[in-house]
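Minutes, project check-in

Agenda point 3 was the complex the collaborators sent over. CS summarized: two entities, 589 residues total, and the question is how they sit relative to each other. Sequences were read into the notes so everyone works from the same version.
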Amino acid sequence: MPLPREDVEATTPKFLRDKYAIVGVGETSYTRGSDKSTRALASIAVRNAMVDAGIKPSEIDGMLSYQFNDSVFSPFVAGDLGIRLNFYMDVFGGGSSTEALIGIAIGVIEAGMCKTVVIFRSMNGFSQVRIGGTGVRSAIPVSGDMMHSRAYGWQSAGQMFAPTFMRHMHDFGTTAEQVAHVRVAHSHHASNNPKAYYKKRITVEDVVSSRMICKPLHLLDCCVETDNANAIIVTTAERAKDLKHPLVRIRGVVGRCSKPRVDMHYQAGPISTVAGHYAKDILWPNAGVGPEDVDLTGSYDAFTFTTMLQLEDYGFCKKGDGGHYVSDGTIMLGGKRPNNTSGGHLCEGYTHGIAMVIENVRQLRHDADDSCPIGPDGRRQHTYDYCEGGCRQVKNAEVSANLGWAMPGTGSAMVMRRG
Amino acid sequence: MISAQYLGMPLEINDLDHENLNYFAYCAKHDFRLQRCASCKLLRYPPTTACPWCSELSSEWVSVEGRGTVHSYTEVHHAIQPAFKQYTPYLVLLVELDTQSGMPTREEGLRVIGNLVRPDGVLAPKAEVERVGIGTRVRMVFTDVAPGLALPQWTIDETAASGMPWRYRG
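CS then shared the predicted structure for the full assembly.
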């Protein structure tokens, strides 16, 4: 772990850096057809996170969740699990909520409103409310601001983001083959993740020959839709030190940082630039590290392009070089800075970003749940052999960065470290 | 309240949504108007309650020439709305108007959404879709939906000197 840098001026008071930790993570399986309500899924995920942390329901007194009118609210999950709440809030939103809510959790604990917060996202994103916008979401009357979008058959996330992707190709010569490497890398990672919905390794040719959805997005440039719930427990590092896992500390967060004119962000260019361009100036000073200090990333992969655009705008490479960065081996397991080692939304399952944070927590514990054998101490004996079906633990992972995405105009981010 | 059906979708503008009622009522007269801020005089799109640059609440509707250049686009092959399927591939165009282009800063402009349509407002056929890309000059036409409601749309400006537009080849 590099020491805090003195050459940057943090905007977060420095005493908050490293003061909070993620102490428990849990999830359900990733399926298409959970045969469970979002209430049941959420309760299972929160319980799994409590078991992971080794804490009792009575030790949790705060709850946060996010949703699109497609999920259960906190009071029911708390009731199911015997958690008495001193604080709860269910917010509207999808991708880029996780890191923002972790920041809120730090804030409410710091304000003395509660002591330990669980954050969940529960969704039947395939079998109930289709995340891609088909089914019930496509039947809602078009009104208000949607008169300038859905009325034109401009509705799904892919359709809405595509002008950003297309303009990046135009401005910088980025190619479909370059960004297809994101899917290839994540498919390799997923092949070493027993939880992943899509475990098959694929090639660049598989991606660019898959059917066109909306240019420049082929089918395999788009993520999967699945049913699942995930949960994360946040508390102070002080409380965390008696718990069973190695500490994973929160270095800094950015929540729903936005481009100008976020109502219709295409009014303010360059439209090939995304919110990370603004968020980076909060993230790195808050975290006291820079991109070069990061061992692994969790750049949101709703689409292959979203991973590339964010890595570029957060400064992992020069502006315009994102296509090269994601295709030169850097983001693969075994490369310099692997991205989404779980397989991400493209392959593991679709969770609106929370599973990417969970994966990095496990990586920083040096306990990625791959197929490596479990030793006498109950921990996995990682081989660092990344062959198909093998290990997916990043060697000596100390610092991670999560780059959450809501849309080109809004993003959230977080840096975590081990120890 | 305006309530109409368009390509299988219910479109609704309620009585409290004065900005959109005005905007689409002018479109229904085939008169493209945007709000001009009473204070800083900048035009804005889409309709909003206040000025995005100076937060002034007062504005007036002024006619704006419906001509511009395709700034970016997507070509939809997999439609979400069932009634759009018969028109695939269709284009969603982000068109930068000539008016106020590069203002108030170099990277800003009035970027107006629309489909590529035939001059009569019906979604354009594949042969026309394949002629359009970033840089294509377009002019505005309207798709009439109901009394008080027409959608501003784009069609190829055949009178414009046309270079080769940039198109995604794949």
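Noted in discussion: Chain B has a mean pLDDT of 96.
Follow-up: revisit at the next meeting once the mutant set is ready.
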